[in-house]
Automatic annotation (TrEMBL):
The organism of origin for this protein: Staphylococcus aureus
Official protein name in the record: Int
Domain AP2-like integrase N-terminal, residue spans: 10-44
Pfam families cross-referenced by the UniProt entry: Arm-DNA-bind_4
InterPro entries the UniProt entry points to: AP2-like_int_N
């Protein structure tokens, strides 16, 4: 599942990969620096 948030003047996305079996912590993929929310959605 992807989430989008505006940080300052740029947008970022974060995709949850679920829990790591070894550590029990959640894993994420994220990227930021997009001018528009639609750009972040396109890359996610």
């Amino acid at each position: 599942m992807a989430s989008y948030e505006k940080r300052g003047n740029t947008w970022r996305y974060r995709i949850s990969l679920g829990k790591d079996a070894e550590t029990g912590k959640y894993k994420y993929i994220s990227n930021s620096g997009f001018k528009r929310k639609s750009d972040a959605k396109h890359h996610a």
